[in-house]
């Protein structure tokens, strides 16, 4: 489940943000900085870029908070801004040249329910396939919504998701074969279980 809907923000906090109250700003940042960072990291694959997305997102959130009318949950509104900022980074010439695409597999200050095996598999996907996978399977975006934010077609989104699932299945099957072969001489590595569970259902599961 998306972390953007785990926190309930009181109307008094939103009113304070509209009035420029620093304490209210801090509460809003505290509630959503972690899910914004997690989403940005998963889409861009780079911690420095994800940090920049967090900053850009909250600059826009606090600048445009007066425009938020409550038609959707505040988390959905913040998430939409974060997705746009992250995708803008992926479209930038600097990012496309690969200067920020080096794997950054550390113990992040992010949602710890996302296992390091899953982190590794996501890093192996290309930026576009990884973004479509995360938006669809974790954030719950429809293919129509993904097509809109990525400025692509619905069929493009579907093909990217299918390709991502196929690759995860292939990697999981390889790990399973290696595990079976190693049973005769070495103990089964239980850490592979989360890798194998990635593609056990049509959707990526983050529990």
Describe the overall structure.
This protein is mainly alpha-helical. It has 2 domains: 104 residues, Rna Polymerase Sigma Factor, Chain: A; 95 residues, Arc Repressor Mutant, subunit A (Orthogonal Bundle). It is 65% helix and 0% strand. It contains 10 helices and no strands. Helix 1 crosses helix 2, helix 2 crosses helix 7 and helix 7 packs across helix 9. The radius of gyration is 19 Å and the shape is elongated. The protein starts with 10 loop residues before the first helix and ends in a 9-residue tail after the last helix. About 15% of the residues have low confidence.
Summarize the structure.
The protein is mostly helical. It has ten helices and no strands.
List its salient traits.
207 residues; mainly alpha; Rna Polymerase Sigma Factor, Chain: A; Arc Repressor Mutant, subunit A; 2 domains
CATH topology tier name of the largest domain: Rna Polymerase Sigma Factor, Chain: A
Number of strands: 0
Biggest sheet: strands, sense, closure? none
Q: How would you describe the shape? A: elongated
Provide the number of structural domains: 2
Amount of helix: 55-70%
Total helical elements: 10
The average pLDDT is 80
**Architecture of the largest domain, CATH level 2?**
Orthogonal Bundle
Helical/strand content category: mainly alpha
How much is the radius of gyration in Å?
Answer: 19 Å
CATH class of the largest domain: Mainly Alpha
The helix/strand series, from N terminus to C terminus, equals HHHHHHHHHH
Percent of residues in β-strands: under 5%
Low-confidence stretches: 99-113, 186-201
């Amino acid at each position: 489940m998306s972390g953007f809907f785990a926190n309930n923000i009181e109307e008094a906090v939103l009113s304070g943000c509209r009035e420029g109250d620093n304490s209210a700003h801090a509460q809003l940042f505290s509630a959503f900085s972690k899910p914004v960072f997690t989403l940005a990291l998963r889409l861009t694959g780079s911690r420095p870029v994800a940090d920049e997305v967090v900053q850009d997102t909250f600059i826009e959130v606090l600048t445009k908070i007066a425009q938020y009318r409550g038609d959707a949950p505040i988390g959905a509104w913040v998430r939409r801004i974060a997705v746009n900022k992250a995708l803008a980074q992926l479209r930038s010439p600097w990012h496309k040249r690969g200067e920020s695409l080096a794997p950054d597999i550390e113990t992040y200050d992010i949602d710890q329910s996302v296992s390091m095996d899953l982190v590794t598999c996501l890093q192996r996907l290309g930026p576009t396939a990884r973004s479509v996978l995360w938006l669809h399977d974790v954030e719950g975006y429809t293919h129509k919504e993904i097509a809109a934010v990525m400025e692509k077609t619905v069929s493009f989104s579907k093909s990217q998701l299918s390709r991502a699932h196929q690759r995860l299945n292939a990697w999981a099957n390889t790990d399973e074969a290696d595990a079976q072969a190693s049973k005769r001489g070495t103990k089964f590595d239980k850490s592979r279980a989360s890798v194998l569970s990635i593609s056990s259902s049509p959707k990526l599961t983050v529990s």
